[in-house]
Amino acid sequence: MEPIRQLALNIPATTKPRVVIVGAGFGGLNTAQSLPDEKFQVVLFDKHNYHTFQPLLYQVASAALQADAIAGPLRSLFHNRKDFHFRMLRVLSVEPGMKVVNTTAGPLEYDYLIISSGAKTNYFGNENMQKYALPLKTIPNALNFRSQLMQLFEWASLNANPDIEDHLLNIVLVGGGPTGVEMAGALSELRKKVLPKDYPRLDFSKMNIYLLEGLDRLLPPMSAKASARAKKDLEKMGVIIKLGAMVQDYDGETVTLKDGEQIKTYIVIWSAGVTGELTPGIPPEWAERGRLLTDTHCKVIGSNGIFAIGDVALMKTEDYPKGHPGVAQPAIQMGKYIGKNLDAIHNGRTVKPFKYFDKGSLATIGRGKAVADLPGNIFFGGRLAWFIWLFVHVQFLVSFRNKLLVLANWTWNLFTFDKGNRLIIRPYIRKGDERAKAVFAENEVGS
Amino acid sequence: MEPIRQLALNIPATTKPRVVIVGAGFGGLNTAQSLPDEKFQVVLFDKHNYHTFQPLLYQVASAALQADAIAGPLRSLFHNRKDFHFRMLRVLSVEPGMKVVNTTAGPLEYDYLIISSGAKTNYFGNENMQKYALPLKTIPNALNFRSQLMQLFEWASLNANPDIEDHLLNIVLVGGGPTGVEMAGALSELRKKVLPKDYPRLDFSKMNIYLLEGLDRLLPPMSAKASARAKKDLEKMGVIIKLGAMVQDYDGETVTLKDGEQIKTYIVIWSAGVTGELTPGIPPEWAERGRLLTDTHCKVIGSNGIFAIGDVALMKTEDYPKGHPGVAQPAIQMGKYIGKNLDAIHNGRTVKPFKYFDKGSLATIGRGKAVADLPGNIFFGGRLAWFIWLFVHVQFLVSFRNKLLVLANWTWNLFTFDKGNRLIIRPYIRKGDERAKAVFAENEVGS
User: Tell me, what's the ipTM?
Assistant: First the structure.
């Protein structure tokens, strides 16, 4: 087996145990950063050469931040490491028996495999939705939405027919979780403060923002107080909220709900569900609905040397019988847990099980408006919650440079209410969008 | 004709003369900003909803600036105007006899038509070059180059075969004008200061940066002193400069020069020529090699109410018998000239002919290195020229917000030598690039 270990992917031979990490989200990044450089060779795989700060994706989508501000260049983050190796590639399969992971650039042996591949959008088999709705999981997703949104306002301003204009300005957000709530708030502020200056001849009273949630309240993982406050604040901002609303179909122009109601719209964001991203080669009995079942030490049950963390992991505990919430904190904490304990596990020492420390949940609604559930059933709404949100997010941004950029942008937005990133850098051309095809050059298009 | 005037493109009816401006580059933008709001209805057309600050495109391409920093949102720039109308569309043709311009969104009548559509890349009929080389005229062009460049380093780090690595790291810049010179300098600094930290296992002594120029000196429009200094500085930075080098072909892997020399490279920037972008419907006798012949009042000779400014215009004067240089200043000055004088022209008053005020030429080579030709045959090189360059470019950035962003980025770069924008936000997939196709998701791709 030595030759593979030496040559594959141009990773140097080593006598240290090799840890291969799949995915540079919050889980993978924190694992890599916590593993001791001198004890392990660390190999990190991702399809992108940057870490995406997902909690702020909605700000890129709503033109408050530029894309580069929420992307942390992976190689820069590890300049101080000696035996760390990032490789940009896609993982094709795992051979757990051989302890080999197969990639688009060839196979690589591992001693420990950390699967932190996150979650992908779940359309629950709705093909039309997958074809026409926009997901919001990656930076290109967010840029596609930003382009599509700005294109619609541009098309609307070309149009002298008021009936068509109504149709053009509607936006439907499916899923009342943090993404849906934060997008609804951001779009509502765009509509009130920013867009009327850009498009003085458009009637923004005809721009309806719909937020659809299948359950009976917004922000289901948060407290009932937070749900109620978010609903109240959003409704005050003019968002049309429909609870218990099940989406049946979307043909690119009309969303049809299960109860027969129809909403005309050219733009739908789908954030109503995620599913784990399971790698081929993993025995199906190791997983449940796409998520890898782990013991309380993050080890995939039944495996030899494979760990799963973050959204792709399903660790059933007494406190979290259905697994941990699919947000950044559990992924970060699991990553740190594995990174700090792997040496002890490698040497057969006893390690305490993983314990999730719930720091609380936050969702921002608008300028000076947020909801915060803090530990001990403490709830904050309004301005105080917003300052907590601001502080936490600036703290978490992965590098000083990004903090600086984000702060500069936010300060500007705060004082001017102008969001300067309303740029269609790469137009988005949806299937059959002949108008966009006629205007834009092929080599400048986003998707 | 009234119905067209009223309904077309949703532009309000008016009793004022309507000025239609095609293209929001330096010429079009300055025309629109200089025209008096109360005297004219101003309609501005562009395919993008932003103005591109072209002199800094090479900084986006070389990962020193994020895209949004050099894009000025067109609608924001005209918030204070009452009878200004931006429309995002493509102009299809002009009917000079009818005074109508046809667009992807329908026809529009004009009283005055300002053509400021700029120049496009001229491949001189070389189809292979058009297929494989990257142009550098738009922000998506620059982002495509940035992605392609970073992808090549990622592929090279997967590769254990040193022969292939040589090939992968070469870069060829065709054209020794400002774009070629500034890119060569920026890439050379990336190679020396930034990339070795990101890719500690790559041998950057094998990364050759070639700068090819067909004439016998770099920066042909500048002084001989500037040409010599740029050559000396770039060669000291390790750029391989070939003067009198005519490119014959590029098959995607090998550049072949007319003298038979071959250079292996996966990445070629073509900035060796431009040509005017002539709109269909313009009588061919009005133009010379794609550029519209104008009198000394910027009026297209033979036309009724059509003006041409900037790169698309060819005004032959005693001082500039071949027309003005294809840089920002003539376009800016012509735009201001038309904007300020159109009311007088409209009222039949006598107007002084346009006179180009040459403020000098600048090109930056690297940190603390630039060349500057100032009026009166004054030449500066080195640090002083660089400070002039810095001052001029910050001054010219179209809005305060962008100035702030660019300054924040530059300050960061200056102190850290780290360029934080080395992100492959949207991968670039060149024809036949199977490796990239295997790794990247289709809906995230740039082109």
Answer: 0.90
